[in-house]
Structure formats: structure tokens, C-alpha cells
Design brief:
Blueprint: E1 2-6, H1 10-20, E2 27-32, H2 35-45, E3 50-54, H3 60-68, E4 74-77, H4 84-94, E5 97-100, H5 111-117, E6 120-122, H6 131-141, E7 145-157, H7 175-181, E8 186-190, E9 193-197, E10 209-213, E11 217-223, E12 242-249, H8 253-262, H9 278-286, E13 298-310, E14 313-324, H10 333-351, E15 358-359, H11 362-365, H12 368-377, E16 382-388
Parallel strand pairs: 1-2, 1-4, 2-3, 4-5, 5-6, 6-15, 7-12
Antiparallel strand pairs: 7-13, 8-9, 10-11, 11-12, 13-14, 14-16
Helix pairs in contact: 1-10, 3-4
Length: about 400
């Protein structure tokens, strides 16, 4: 079978490496706008199944032509998130299955048409969203009644290198995308009440808390997107008491970026005295200073906590996943957990393990045992623990970041 991979940046490289090893995949067509770099990487790794070509994703007509004429059985979207719905539309029009690591967004509106055409569309198959949703679905299914669901995701330098720069942060993702997320509105549920948090307030102490991760210590958590929109996806009651999606960083991160937000330095519109926006300036100025050296590792953390009742007893279910950079392949933990997850989903579709047409969800449409087994085969392991709790006294972590 033939796969069309759109974009082979940091995460796309992991997708390509995974597909190269799969007997299901006979050919991989990689289209990217940075063709010289891609061809150099393909030659260095020694890929046998990959052919490459140029892509202008900003042109709707050229994007549709590239997809429709690819001859692919499945399209994997690893371009910047703003191209997600355009690529999905091109794949649907061409009758080609579609997988991406980005949020569903407008893609969800294509469900009826996808079902009619027999096309499988599976967005949100990366790290966060992706692995967190799958583990969340398992955790929720282990309880008879769910009172709360918190999920956390983070990608940071390993402890040995977290103090290499004042931000305790290095780039394993698009830094522009990171800064966009630092200005994104969020929604959480607290004590049964929906709390809308403006993007410029996500780092404020009242919206943050500390989390202890075994082997790593205390980390800061801040709201990451709209948790409420996943209530129905998890099959939860709208009266759920607590729900939140949070990102994890080393201590000090929230205070710094909260100040930057207060100063307007995360704005995406050019200031009167500057030819670029403050955000664009930060990307250009900071990116060279936040790179990993060849021998340095990043780590990725996913934690999912669900609590409620099982057989009349208060229970808390916690799933943890921690991964680190593979120096042999050069792939960061972020590349591995995003790219391998997307590739696993693609292979499940190609093999027929996922076969229902429409816009699917990792929560209910991905075979969980098979998925976790595939992650383990590439060294990405998760652990679950179940504890008794007193529901009358239990409160989710609420210690604010100082």
C-alpha cells in the first residue's frame, strides 16, 4: 500500500521511520516545502521506500492536486496545524483515508460525508491529543462513576539539562506552535462549574498548580485548551465535578511566561514600531538559543487521573507514561510519542483493524490493547495504578504555582 506523508519535520521523521519498517507499506511519498533538507535526511538514513516531491500547502488548488494525484491509500498530515482542515478536505474529496496528530476542529464536520464515501478520518492521534485520550478512555472505563478527569502532557529537557538556559526549556516541537498555545484560551471544570480562562491568563497562579511526577519531582501545570469539549467524547455526564487538560513544565516557567503575556509579548500582530509581531520576534530571537545538543535528551510525560466510584468504593485511576530521546536514531521523545502514534494509527487503518468510515476518535475507535502493545514494541511504556480514596474528602491537586 502507498502512504502520502505531508510534511517531514521533527515529528514527520518518526512517522517515516515507522512506516519504512512496516510490511504493510510498499511506498511512501513525502511532500514538503523544504525539499533539500528532506532529500538529505532520506539519503542519510537510507530509506528504501521513500520518494519525495515539493509541496505548496498554502495554495488550496495545488494541495488538492498533490493529494488527488498521489495514488495513495492514506494521507498523513504532519504539516503545521493550520493546514489540518485543508488537508483533510483534500483527502476526503479524493476518497483517501486520513490521519493527523492535530485537534479535530473543523474536521469533525466532515463526518457524514466521510461515512457516505467510506473514508476513515482519524485526527488527534499524536501525544496530546492522542495518547492522553486513549489512556483517559481506559481510565474512565475502569470506573462505574466518574467524578473527575485530569490529563497532563509535557515535553521538556531531561533533569540534567533543564538548567542550561533561564527558561528550563528547549525545542522539540515547532516553537511558533508552542508560543501560539501559550496564548490559547482554555476551559476547565471546577466543582461542577465551567471556568473560561482567557489565553493571557493561563499562567496566573489561580489557574496553575503543582504536580509530583515520580523520578522527576515537582512540575508546574497550566491549562492547555478546552477540556469541556471532550466530556461527550469520553461518554461522561455533563454534571462531572472536575475536568481539565494541562501542560507540564519545570518550575519557573509559568511565572516567566505569565510576565511575557502581561507585557503583550505573545501577541501575534505587529506593533507600531516593529515590522513583525512580538511573537514572531521571540521565535526568531530565542529559537537558536533553545536547541538540544546532539547528546542531550528531552523527556515526554503523560499523566491521566480519573477518580470516582467502582463497586461502591472510591477509586483513583492514574496512568503515567514517560519517554526520552533515542540517541541511536536521533529522534526526540516528542518525535517518538507523536510520530510513532500517528504511524500506528495509519497501520491500523491499512491492516483493517480500524475499519469504520467517518471522523473517528482515539477514545473509542482505536483498539487499546493493540495500540499499547505497538507502543511497547518501540520502547514507549505506560503504567497504571489504582488507589482507594475517600470521595467525601478527595480534592484534585490544587496547590497553585507560586
Amino acid at each position: 500500500m502507498k502512504v502520502l506523508l505531508l510534511g517531514m519535520g521533527l515529528q514527520g521523521k518518526a512517522v517515516a521511520q515507522s512506516l519504512e519498517k512496516s510490511p504493510l507499506v510498499k511506498e511512501i511519498l513525502v511532500l514538503d516545502n523544504n525539499l533539500d533538507s528532506i532529500n538529505k535526511y532520506v539519503a542519510e538514513i537510507g530509506f528504501k521506500k521513500i520518494t519525495t516531491g515539493a509541496l505548496n500547502a498554502k495554495s488550496e488548488s495545488e494541495l488538492h492536486k498533490s493529494v488527488s494525484q498521489s495514488g495513495a491509500d492514506l494521507v498523513i498530515m504532519m504539516l503545521p496545524v493550520e493546514f489540518g482542515s485543508s488537508v483533510a478536505r483534500a483527502a476526503l474529496d479524493a476518497g483517501i483515508h486520513f490521519v493527523s496528530s492535530g485537534y479535530a476542529g473543523e474536521i469533525a464536520l466532515m463526518d457524514r460525508e466521510a461515512k457516505a464515501k467510506g473514508v476513515i478520518m482519524l485526527p488527534e492521534m499524536g501525544l496530546d491529543p492522542g495518547i492522553d485520550l486513549i489512556l483517559g478512555g481506559i481510565a474512565v472505563g475502569m470506573l462505574d462513576r466518574v467524578d473527575g478527569l485530569y490529563s497532563y502532557g509535557g515535553g521538556v529537557p531531561e533533569p540534567a539539562h533543564k538548567d542550561d538556559n533561564p527558561l528550563s526549556y528547549k525545542i522539540s516541537w515547532s516553537f511558533e506552535g508552542v508560543l501560539k498555545a501559550y496564548a490559547r484560551d482554555a476551559v476547565v471544570i471546577r466543582e461542577g462549574e465551567q471556568i473560561d480562562i482567557p489565553g493571557n491568563s493561563i499562567f496566573k497562579p489561580e489557574n496553575t498548580h503543582m504536580v509530583d511526577i515520580a523520578g522527576l519531582g515537582s512540575m508546574e501545570a497550566y491549562p492547555n485548551g478546552d477540556a469541556a469539549k471532550f466530556i461527550s467524547a469520553f461518554g461522561l455526564d455533563k454534571n462531572i465535578r472536575h475536568m481539565g487538560r494541562f501542560a507540564l513544565r519545570w518550575p519557573g516557567h509559568c511565572g516567566f511566561w505569565g510576565t511575557m503575556a502581561d507585557l503583550g509579548l505573545l501577541a501575534d500582530k505587529p506593533a507600531d514600531t516593529l515590522p513583525v509581531s512580538p511573537r514572531e520576534f521571540l521565535v526568531k530571537a530565542l529559537s537558536p538559543k533553545l536547541q538540544y545538543a546532539d547528546g542531550e535528551k528531552d523527556i515526554v510525560i503523560i499523566r491521566v487521573e480519573a477518580w470516582g466510584e467502582k463497586d461502591g468504593v472510591g477509586k483513583r485511576v492514574t496512568w503515567d507514561l514517560i519517554d526520552s530521546r533515542d540517541l541511536e536514531t536521533g529522534l526526540f521523545a516528542m518525535n517518538r510519542t507523536v510520530g510513532y502514534t500517528t504511524a500506528i494509527a495509519a497501520k491500523m487503518i491499512l491492516s483493517g483493524k480500524i475499519n469504520a468510515p467517518g471522523v473517528l476518535s482515539p477514545i473509542k475507535d482505536v483498539p487499546t490493547e493493540d495500540f499499547l502493545r505497538e507502543l511497547e514494541l518501540v520502547g514507549i511504556r505506560s503504567q497504571c495504578r489504582v488507589e482507594d480514596i475517600d470521595l467525601g474528602r478527595y480534592e484534585p491537586t490544587s496547590t497553585p504555582v507560586a
